[in-house]
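B., you asked whether I could sanity-check this one before it goes into the benchmark set. Here's the sequence:
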Amino acid sequence: MTVGPWKPITLETYDTRIDDIDIRSTISEQLDAHVAVDFSLSHGERVIATVQIKDPSDQVIIGQNNLRVTSQGKAEFKLSKGTYEPWYPVGYGKQPLYTVEISVANEQGKVLDTRIQKIGLRRARIVQDELIDQEGRTFLFEVNNIRVFCGGSNWIPADSFLTTMTPDRYRAWLQLLVDGNQNMIRVWGGGIYEADAFYEICDELGILVWQDFMFGCGQYPAYDSFIKSVELEAEQNVKRLRHHPSVVIFAGNNEDYQVAESYKLDLDYSDEQSDFRQTTFPARHIYERVLPSVVEKFSNIHYHRSSPYSGFGKPTTDKTYGDLHQWNVWHGSQEPWHNWDILAGRFVSEFGMEGYPNIRTVDYWLGGNKAERFPQSRTMNNHNKADGFERRLELYLVENFKHAFDIESYVYYTQIMQAETLASAYRLWRRNWKGKGREYTAGALVWQINDCWPVTSWAIVDYFLRPKPAYFTIKRELRPYTVGMTRKEKKTFPDELSAADFTIETVLEIWGTNSTLSEKKVTLDVTSYDLHSSWSEKWTKDVVLAPNASTELFSGELPGEPKRTKLSEVPRTVVVSTRLLDDSGAVLGRYSNWPEPFKYITFPAVKDLGLKVSVGSDGESVHLSTEKPIKGIVLEVEGEDVQWEDQAVDLVPGDAQVISAVGLKGREVKVRFLGDGTA
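And here's what the prediction gave me:
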C-alpha cells in the first residue's frame, strides 16, 4: 500500500489558535535588518498578542507587547548592523538562529495559543552580472555581501522507505557533507520535499539549500484541477520552508525544459506572453506563471524556472548563462573526464561518474551467494539501475586503466576512476573562480551524495553511509586552500604549410585557490620525479593567494620532459608533486599530477617502491611513506569498517602522510594502489 497517511496525525482542540505565521527578514546591503512578523488567527475574536525575538542564548532582544488583534496581526522590528549576528554558510561565519515567539491571550489574560519559529538573519542574492573577458553572465550566490563558490552535492531520498528516515539519519548524512568541506545541497525535483528535520539541520550546520519543486524529467499537464493541486502543494511547501535561512533558491523543476528541447516541443524562449497551456509544452504555464507567483507571494526567496535553465533566450545546454547539467561525461557524448575544463558552465548543478560501493555493501546484497560474486552477474546488474552502465563503466575503465575483473579489483578500479573524475571537475572548475567579475564557474554540485538502497551508482557515499574514495578526493579539492595542475601537449609546426615536421612540448600549469576572505602568503613547493630513475628536481617560490579566488602560479615546460619530434617517441613518466606550505611548514594543500592515461604507465615493481605502511602507537592512525611516487592508495581492513580521514591518496618521497583511522583498533592495514600487481 503506497497511499494514505504516512506521517504523524494529531488532533488539537482550541478556542482560538494561530493559523499561520509569516516571518520575513529583509537585510540591506549595509546589513541592517528589518523583520516583519505577520500572523493570522482562526477566529475573529479580539485578542492581545505578544511578539518577541530571542537571540541564540534565549535572551529577548526586542519585542512588542499588548498588540490588539482580531483576525490578522503584524509586528515589525529594525535591527541595525552590529546589534544582531548574521547567519553565514559554513566556512564563512557562524550560524546563529533566533527564536520568534508569538503568544495570543484573551482579555482576561488567558493564553490561547503560542507559536515558536526559528529564523536566521541573512542577505542572500543570486547575482547574474556581465563578465569580464568572457561572454555571458555570472550565476552565483552571494550571502551577506560575500560571493560564495558553492561546492556541494545533489540529494535524493535517502531511503526507498521514507518512514525509516529519522532526524539522526539526516544528521549523519548532512554532517558527512560538511565534514567533506561542502557547503551546498540540492534537493532534486525527482524526489520529495524533505522532512522538517532536514532543513533544520541544514540551518544549524550552515548548508545552503537549493530546493527544486517536485517536477522531474517529464512533461506535466496544465488543466485546471491539476493546476489547483499544484498551487496548493507549492503554497504549503513554500510556507513551510520560507523561514529557513539555509534555503536560498527555489527551482521550478528538474530538466523539464531540457526534455522539451529534446522532443522539440513548443518552446520559444523569446515568447513570454502566450498561453502556454495551449501548446505542446503546457507545463511551462506551471513554471512561468504558477510557481513564481506562489514564491513571490509567500516568500522572499529567489525563483529560478528550472534546473538547468539558462535564461536570456538561451537553451539549457548553454554554458555561458544560468546553471548547467553537464552529462557529456558518462551520458551524452561520453567525453573524457580530462575535458572538464572545456565542459564548464557558469554553475554546474549536476555532473557525475559511477563507482562501486564498499565491498561490504556489495557482499550485503549478494547475501553470501558466491556464485554471483563477479561484476557481470545477474545480481550485480540488478543493483545498478543506470541505462547502459556496463558499457559506460568499461568505456572509462578501458580508456584509462589496466584493470582486473575479480570483484575486489573491480570495486577498487571503478572507485579510483570515480575519484579521479570528480576531483578533476572540482579542481578545474574552482580554477574558474577568479575573483569579482571573473566568476566563470561559481559552483559544482555532484550527482549525487547519497543512495536510497544498497546499489552501484553515482553516489559518493553508499546507502550505509560508507564514503567511497571520491568523497575524499572531493573533500581535498574543497579545502580552504588548494593547489592544482594541468599538463597539456603543445604541437608546433615550422609554418602553416608543413605537417611532417613538428615539435611537441609538454606545458605544465599550476594554480592555487583560497576560499577565505584574506590573502594568504604561502610557499609553493614543486618536485618532479622520473618514475623509472632516481632523477628529481625541486623548486620553491613564495606566492600570494588572492582572497576568495584562484591565482595562477606557474606556466612553463614540464620539468624533466624533453621536447619530442615524433609521435612514436614515448614521453618520460614524470610525476609532479605540488604543495602549499604555510610559515611553519604545515601542508595547506597538495596535489600530484601524473601522466595519463594511467594504463600506459609501466609501474615499478612493488618491492622497489619502498612503501611503508604502519599503524600509529594510538592504534587509530596509519603512517604512510615511500621512496617512489605511488598513485591512488586505498586503505582497507578485515572485519568491522573504519572511519578513514582520507582515501585515494597519492604518495611521493619526502612527503609522509598520517591518516586518522577511527575504529582501526590496531588492526593490520591492507593497501591497494595503481601498479600493486593485481592487474
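One thing to flag: The chain has a mean pLDDT of 96. Otherwise nothing jumped out at me.
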